[in-house]
Structure formats: C-alpha cells, structure tokens
Amino acid sequence: MKTLRLFALLCTLSLGLFWTTTAQSPTDLSLLTIDDLRYEGAFRLPADEFGLSSMNYSEGPLFYHPDRESIFIVGHAHQQAIAEFAVPEIVDSTVITDLAMAAAPVQNFAAFLDSAQGDNPQLLDRIGGLAVISGTTQMLVNAYEYYDAPGDNTDTTLVIGDAADLAGAQVEGFFAFEGGAGHTSGWISPVPPAWQSILGGPYITGASSGIPIISRTSVGPSAFVFDPADVGASSPISTTKLLDFSLDHPLHEDLSNDSRENSLWTHLSRHLRRHCAGDAHLPHPGLLGWTRKRRLLQMHPGQRQRMRRLLRAPGRRLLSFLLAVGCQRSGGGEERGEAGVRSAALRIG
Fold first, then answer.
1. Is 86 helix (H, G, I), strand (E, B) or coil?
2. In what order do the strands lie in the sheet with 70-74?
3. Closest listed residue to residue 138, CA positions, set 246, 285, 238, 237
4. Fewest Cβ atoms nearer than 10 Å: which of 21, 137, 160, 220?
5. Residue 62 forms beta bridges with which residues?
6. Is it the case that residue 31 has pLDDT exceeding 80?
7. 3-state secondary structure of 184
C-alpha cells in the first residue's frame, strides 16, 4: 500500500462545551462558533485500487455509519464509485506518517450513477452527498451534472437498496427534490429528534454554488427539510425550504470581492457541508457519529483548508455551515486568491 500518501484524512474534533442532561428547549440553546472546536486526531485511507476505483483524486463526499464504525466514501472523481472502510485507531497528531492507515475496504468501490432502474437520462456525473437512512439499510445518494450548461436538470437522487451489499444492491431512481437540482443535490443530514417538529422533518438536504453555471445553484448554502419516506413515493420529493439563495439574491452582493472586504461568500466560494445540532445524546448517523467516544470530521486532502464535513454540536442551537471562501487576496478575476474556511450559523427560533 502507498502508506505515505494521504488521500482521505478524517479528523476528530471535541467541543469545548458544557451541557447538562436537564431537559431544555432546543430554541434556548446557544449558537456554536468555530472557536468551540478542538482537533483530536485523524487517520488515513489507502490509495490502492479496490474494485472499480481508488481514493486517488477523491472529492470526498462520505457518510459515517455509527453502527458499523465505518465510512462510505466516494473515490476517484472519474469513477464516482462508493466503498466502505472500517475506521482505524484515531491518532492525535498532525504528522501524516504518524497516522494509522485503514485496512483494505470492507466493501470495494462500486459505481451507481448509471445503474439505476430508470437509467441516467440527465447524465448526472458527480455525487454530491450520501446517507444511510436511520433504521433502514437504504442509502440515499444525491448527484448532479458538473457542467449543466442549460441549467435544466431536475433529477437529484437515487436509492441504493442495501448499503451492506454495494456490489449486489438494487438501485432505484433517479428522483427529484422539490426546490431545484442546483439547490438540493448536495449533502444529506439527519435532524435531531428534538428539532424535527420545529424544522418540519427528519432530514435536510442542500447545495451551493462553487460549481460551473452559477445561475442554476444556490449562491450561498441552502437547506431543505424532507422525509426519506417520500423518496419514490411523491414526484417531486416534497421539501420545506429553510434557507436558499439565487444569483439575483446571493448571500453577499460583492461576489467578485472588489472591496477586498467580503470574507463571507464570493464567486469562488463553496459550501462544504451543513450540520443541524441540538441533541446532546443521539449519535449523528449522517455527517458525524460516535466512534471510540470520538467525533469524526472529514478534511478534504486535495485542497488546503477545505473541510468537507460538518460537525455535530450537542448543546448548540443552529444550522451550522463551513464555507470555503475564495477571492480573499486578489478578487474574483482571472487571478484566484487564497481560500479560507469560515463558519456561519442560521439562528433557529
């Protein structure tokens, strides 16, 4: 194995927070900031080919499964295949060679975008997010077309029937979320039970600009609540919009950062992942979960400072977002500036 090369770095964070088991209304919780987070460790994934793909040039969408103590992750950008790796020991070090290397995958890479019963008529070629639905074996996979020049795609989602059998699972889809493909085809995250009645459902999906054809996307991070039971049962899949933007009404008006003072959202920005927090005890089976009493947060190895997963934050009231913000030094013209990580939170209640 190529043990000295890093292709997927998973970091654990602990929250420097205090909360009690006393019943508390979710809307009374305070907001999380990035200063509440502390690095606790990481591990590596091997670069070898396993089945149809490898972790080389992975763009990083993943799902942590708390019951299996494993991650389902998308491999090389060309194949967009999914594999399952068991989580190894987490080492508290920032030196790559100190980190434990995961073993060969529990399940080799398998491709799904062209395997659905309904085919792939809109030629979706990138996976935006995935999640095994709590209490089931089904995995939802969101996908989009990287260069949808007409901006006319509507399909967003397929269903893998058995996440424990990637090689033999039946694949259904594609299905479409209400709200537009460029606004709903990214991450998938469970909503803690205490928040479900407040937000209107058990899961949230979203997307953002930062991919070609900005006019088709949410120009800022979006958030749409949905019920997985509606996937395949209604067309389009019913959603409740919590947060959304457009090119006419972006998150920040100065998208080219001509002022050099826009550190929130520019043409080069991309939302990395969204997280809904508020339950102090429930494991977070989507973007984040418990393993060996630690929390997992993915760091994308191919791009500096780009966190690809959001964190679970019990004891905090928010929809939290980690943003990669471009045009920081040179503006949004031909010369691209450094991208930095920013955190933002949508206050609820």
1. strand
2. 62-65, 70-74, 81-86, 107-111
3. 285
4. 21
5. 73
6. no
7. helix
Q: How far apart are CA 71 and CA 54, in angstroms?
A: 15
Q: Which of 50-59, 260-269, 297-306, 316-325 has the largest mean confidence?
A: 50-59
In the block, which residue shows the tokens 């009231």? Answer: 317
> Does pLDDT of 35 surpass 90?
no
- 72-93 in b/e form (b: 16+ CB < 10 A) is bbbbbbebbbbbbbebbebbee
Query: For 265-274, how does the pLDDT look when each residue is reduced to its tens digit (9 = 90+)?
Result: 999 888 765 5
User: Which amino acid type is present at position 167?
Assistant: A
